[in-house]
């Protein structure tokens, strides 16, 4: 087989076979096919698209390029959740203990990464002593015992995706639905999930800005998952403003505790109930989505969800007493109010910019080498649709320096007010099941 023939085949709009796609991905991973040929092939995909079979083949070829996590020693159906990323997205912290309390095994592999705030592991480290440096055997034992554990990411998961993603980044081929969908799905499948619940964000703060694009991506991922035998469903949820109130590591842990107690923000709570219902249902722990939701509400009301969070933190060396006394979480030296200069209704909270402001405070990493400050971040005091009077606080800035002028300036530019009444955005746009 010659790579140039396969580039031409795709360029001319023909379907590549499973063997051909395997040849390309194996060759690229090993280094026998050069970047310039893969670049041309990616651009051909960008313009010609891929059939459902090709997408499934590409996904599985990337899965096969590296380690595949074997979770078969864990009892039950392993359901993983994936979010396409937003600002202040605390759902993972809430959903893990919440669905585990209902009996769904949560075997979470998580990372740190770059961004506005830390990853799930960084956030959990706000509980003094919590660590993810456990062996695979300990990990499996903990999930069987407590239904929930988190381990750091294996270094050699989907190396083909890592290489392709880096190349796409510099060849103008990131924004292709088949490539995005197979990239995301390959990582979830390699991590060992039997079933996958996707939270596809839509709106100004999301990767996909329009509902149409979000729907296309969601459908593409659901099709790939089901095609390769992993039960997959997607929820399209709003990211036209940050979810919940907290953006920051310790602040989000506190927000997760509040939500597990039934005292969390309305939008975060509702999204967790919707995603959680799909997870419980996919794990065969309920006969319907309605029954699944009822079970989740029950463990919030009877305290089992919160208790599960404590057990999970303590099992991995963390201070579980933060669930009773969140003041034991890292605290910032200063709390500075951003007050409204005019009156009106909040019409926009540009999530990207709010996230950037949180990163400047030290809540997230700008580069791999950056240190995270777990205590700092932002608490939104107003959301879209809320009425604001002059002098009222829009945001509380949690900082370890008094020098927050740049942060405040960014926030004033990100929170827009209108004289007319504004409706709050719809939270759940669509649920896509096969
Ligand atoms: N996120 C991914 O993991 N892959 C993509 O291609 C795009 C976003
Ligand atoms: Ca939040």
UniProtKB/TrEMBL annotation:
InterPro entries: Glycosyl_Trfase_fam3, Glycosyl_Trfase_fam3_N_dom, Glycosyl_Trfase_fam3_N_dom_sf, Nuc_phospho_transferase, PYNP-like_C_sf, PYNP_C, Pyrmidine_PPas_bac/euk, Pyrmidine_PPase_CS. Keywords: Glycosyltransferase, Transferase. It comes from the Bacteria. Gene3D superfamilies: Nucleoside phosphorylase/phosphoribosyltransferase catalytic domain, Pyrimidine nucleoside phosphorylase-like, C-terminal domain, Transferase, Pyrimidine Nucleoside Phosphorylase, Chain C. Its EC number is 2.4.2.2. Residues 345-418 form the Pyrimidine nucleoside phosphorylase C-terminal domain. Catalyzes phosphorolysis of the pyrimidine nucleosides uridine, thymidine and 2'-deoxyuridine with the formation of the corresponding pyrimidine base and ribose-1-phosphate. Homodimer. This is Pyrimidine-nucleoside phosphorylase. The lineage of its organism: Bacteria, Bacillati, Bacillota, Bacilli, Bacillales.
């Amino acid at each position: 087989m010659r790579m140039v023939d396969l580039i031409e085949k795709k360029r001319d709009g023909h379907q590549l076979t499973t063997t051909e796609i395997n040849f390309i991905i194996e060759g690229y991973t090993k280094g026998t096919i050069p970047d310039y040929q893969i670049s041309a092939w990616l651009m051909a995909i960008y313009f010609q698209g891929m059939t459902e079979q090709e997408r499934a083949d590409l996904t599985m070829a990337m899965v096969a390029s590296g380690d595949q996590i074997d979770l078969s020693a864990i009892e039950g159906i392993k359901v993983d959740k994936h979010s396409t990323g937003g600002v202040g997205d605390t759902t993972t912290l809430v959903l893990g203990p919440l669905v585990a309390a209902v009996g769904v095994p949560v075997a979470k592999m998580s990372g740190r990464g770059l961004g506005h705030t830390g990853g799930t592991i960084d956030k959990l480290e706000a509980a003094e002593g919590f660590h993810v440096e456990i062996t695979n055997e300990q990990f499996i034992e903990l999930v069987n015992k407590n239904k929930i554990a988190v381990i750091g990411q294996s270094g050699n998961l989907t190396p083909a995706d890592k290489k392709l993603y880096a190349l796409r980044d510099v060849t103008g081929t990131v924004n292709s639905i088949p490539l995005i969908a197979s990239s995301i799905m390959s990582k979830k499948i390699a991590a060992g999930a039997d079933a996958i619940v996707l939270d596809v964000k839509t709106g100004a703060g999301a990767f996909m800005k329009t509902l149409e694009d979000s729907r296309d991506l969601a459908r593409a991922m659901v099709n790939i998952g089901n095609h390769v035998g992993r039960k997959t469903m997607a929820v399209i949820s709003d990211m036209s403003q940050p979810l919940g109130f907290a953006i920051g590591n310790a602040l989000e842990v506190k927000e997760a505790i509040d939500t597990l107690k039934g005292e969390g923000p309305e939008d975060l709570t509702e999204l967790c109930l919707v995603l959680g219902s799909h997870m419980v249902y996919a794990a065969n722990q309920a006969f319907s989505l309605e029954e699944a939701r009822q079970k989740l509400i029950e463990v919030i009301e009877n305290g089992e969800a919160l208790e599960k969070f404590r057990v999970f933190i303590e099992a991995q060396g963390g201070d579980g007493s933060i669930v009773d006394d969140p003041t034991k979480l890292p605290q910032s030296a200063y709390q500075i109010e951003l007050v409204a200069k005019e009156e009106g209704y909040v019409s926009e909270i540009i999530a990207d910019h709010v996230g950037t402001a949180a990163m400047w405070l030290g809540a997230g990493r700008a580069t791999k080498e950056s240190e995270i400050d777990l205590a700092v971040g932002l608490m939104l005091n107003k959301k879209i649709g809320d009425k604001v009077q002059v002098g009222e606080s829009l945001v509380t800035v949690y900082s370890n320096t008094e020098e927050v002028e740049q942060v405040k300036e960014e926030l004033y530019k990100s929170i827009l007010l209108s004289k007319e009444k504004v409706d709050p955005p719809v939270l759940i746009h669509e649920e896509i099941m096969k």
